[in-house]
Amino acid sequence: MNLSVGGLDLAVILVYLAGVVALGCYAGFVRRRGSGEGSHYFLAGNTLTWPVIGLAMFAANISTVHLVSLAEAAYKYGLVFGHFEWMAGFTLILLSLFFAPLYLRSKVPTLPDFLERRFNRQCRDLLAVVSLFSAIVIHIGIALYTAAFVLRGILGMHPGATLFGMDALMFFIIALGVLTGIYTMLGGLLAVVWTESIQTVLLLLGAIVITVVAWNRLGGWEVLVATLAAKAHPLAGTAKDIPATTGNFLNMARDASDLSGLPWYSVILGYPVLGIWYWCADQTIVQRVLAARDEKQARLGPLFCAFLKILPVFFFVLPGTICVALVQNNVFQGEGPATAADTYTFMITHLLPVGLKGLVTAAMLAAAMQTCSAALNSTATLFAYDIYKRWRPGTTDHRLVVIGKITTVVATVLAIAWSPLLSHYNTIYDGLVRLVSYVSPPITAVFLIGVFWRKASGKGAYITMTSGAVFGAAMFVLDFSGHGVKDFMLTAFGMFLVCSVVLVAASKAFPEPLKAEAEPLVWSRWNESFEGNAGGRGLADYRVLSVVVALTFVVLYALVW
C-alpha cells in the first residue's frame, strides 16, 4: 500500500476517532445520571438552546458527501451546485416562522407523532416508514460510502484493494459504521449533539484550511476569474458531461443547455419541494428543534443554522472551482485529478503538508460520523415511539431505550449493506438529490397544506401520502435501472403539484371536522405566527432575524446571478 499520508497524519486520524467515541460514551454516562430516561436518551431532556440547535442541525446536514461531491460538482460545473446550500436559508426561515412553534406546542417526540395529532394514525405509520427509509438510505448509507471512498483514496489504495482480507472500501464502511453506532447507541441524542458541536468546528476548520491553501497557491480572485475565462476545462473531451470551457463557472444562474442539469427555473421551482421536506419535515434534521428548551430557542436555532449555510459555498464548493484553475495554470506540473470524483482527495494529498493532511482527513471523517450519528438517533427514536410503542402503548421508558439501542445496531447493519450500491450513480451527490426528489413531494404537500388549511382531512392526507409514495418508489426503481428523468428538480415540482391537487380533491371528497387536539396545530391566518411574544429585541426577535437572514441570501445571490 502506497500511503499518501505520513505517520503524523495517521496519528491525528486515530486520535480523533478515539476521542470522539470516548466523548460519546461519556455523554451516555452523563445522561444516565439525569431523570426521565426516555426523554433524555431521545430528546436530550428538552434542554437544547439555539446555538446548540443551529450547530447540530448544520452538523447533521453536512457530511462527507458535501466535502467530496460538492468539490466534484464544482470541478465539473463551477458554483451552480451551491444552490443547494444557499436556498436552504429560505426554507430554514419557514421552519422558524411556521413549523417550529407548532412542533413545540404539540410536545411531540417525533414528526410522525405530530402528523397523527394533525390527521390520523395511518398517516403517522406511513411517515414513520418513509422516515426510517430516508434515515438509513439517504443519511447514513451515503455518508458511510463517501467517507470510505475518500479514506481509501487518501491512504493511496486503488479500487479493488484489500485490507485484512476484505475489500478496503467495505472495511472502511464497516469500521466507521461500527464506531459511530457504538457512541450513538450508548449516549443517545446528548452524545450526538455533544460530538456534533465539536465535529462541526473540526469540519469547518479543515475546510477552511484547504480553501485558504488553495487560494494562496492560485494567487487570488483576479487570477481565478482570468484563468477560468481564458482556458479549457482540464478534463474536456474525457466524458460527455464535462463542459469544454469554464467561462461561466462563477455564475450560478444557468440555462437549460448547461450540462449541470440545474437551470435557474428548476432550482427556484424544485428546491422548495426538497427543502421543506428536508429542513422542516425530516426527523433526522428537525429532532434538534423538538429537543429545544422553549419556543424561542426552537425559532432562533434554525435561523442560526441558516447563517451557517452561507459557509459551504465558500469552503466546500469554491475549492473545487479553484482546483480547476490550479490545474489550468499547471501548478501541479501536469498532474490533476484523474476524475472529478477525485478532486478533494487530490487537493488534500497535493496541497497540504504533513499533519494538516491528517487534520483535514479527520474533518472528513467527522462530517460522515456526525451525519450517521444524527440519523441513527432519529431512527431509534422513530422506531421506538412510532412503531414499537404504537403496538405496545404500555412500554416503559427503560424498555424504549433498550429498543432504541437495538434499532441503532440494526440500522447500522442495514446502512452498511446498502452503502456499496451507491457506486451505481454518476456522482454521489447526484444520487443523493435524486433520492430526495422522489421522497419529498407528498410529505411536503401534506405538511405545508396541513398547517395552513384547516379543511385538509386525514383521509385526504393518507391518500396523498400513499399515492405519492407509490409514485416515488416507481420513479426510484426507474432511475436506478437507468431510465430516470434528467431534470429531477422539475420532476419534484411536478410531483408536488400533483400531490397538492390530490390532497385538496381528496379532502373535499372525504371531509372531516378538525379534531380538537389539532386546533393548535393549524394556523388560522398566515401571519398569526408573527403575533405575541417575540422573545427579545433586535436580533433576539425571530421576526427581525428572519428578515436579516432573507436579505443576506438575496444579496449573496445578486453577486453571483
Task: Write a compact overview of the structure shown.
It contains 21 helices and two strands.
Architecture overview:
With 561 residues, this protein is an all-alpha fold. The chain has one domain: Up-down Bundle (Sodium/glucose cotransporter), CATH 1.20.1730. 71% of the residues lie in helices and 1% in strands. The chain contains 21 helices and 2 strands. The chain has helices at residues 7-32, 37-43, 50-61, 64-77, 83-86, 88-106, 111-118, 121-154, 168-218, 221-230, 264-280, 283-290, 295-308, 311-328, 343-351, 356-391, 397-418, 428-450, 458-480, 488-509, 542-560; strands at 162-163, 166-167. The protein has a two-stranded antiparallel sheet with strand order 1-2. Helix 8 runs antiparallel to helix 16 (356-391) and helix 13 (295-308) runs parallel beside helix 21. The radius of gyration is 23 Å and the shape is globular. It starts with 6 loop residues before the first helix and ends with a helix. The relative contact order is 0.18.
Notable characteristics:
Sodium/glucose cotransporter; 561 residues; mainly alpha; Sodium/solute symporter; 21 helices; 71% helix
Oligomerization category of the chains in this entry: single chain
Instruction: Assign the structural class, choosing from mainly alpha, mainly beta, alpha/beta, alpha+beta, or little secondary structure.
Output: mainly alpha
- Sketch the topology as an H/E string, one letter per element: HHHHHHHHEEHHHHHHHHHHHHH
- Mind summarizing the main beta sheet? 2 strands, antiparallel
How far apart the termini lie comes to: 46 Å
CATH architecture descriptor name: Up-down Bundle
Q: Radius of gyration, Cα only, in angstroms?
A: 23 Å
Mass-distribution shape: globular
Provide the CATH top-level class.
Answer: Mainly Alpha
Uncertain ranges: 35-42
User: Strand share of the residues?
Assistant: under 5%
The spatial strand order of the largest sheet comes to 1-2
Mean pLDDT, to the nearest integer, reads 84
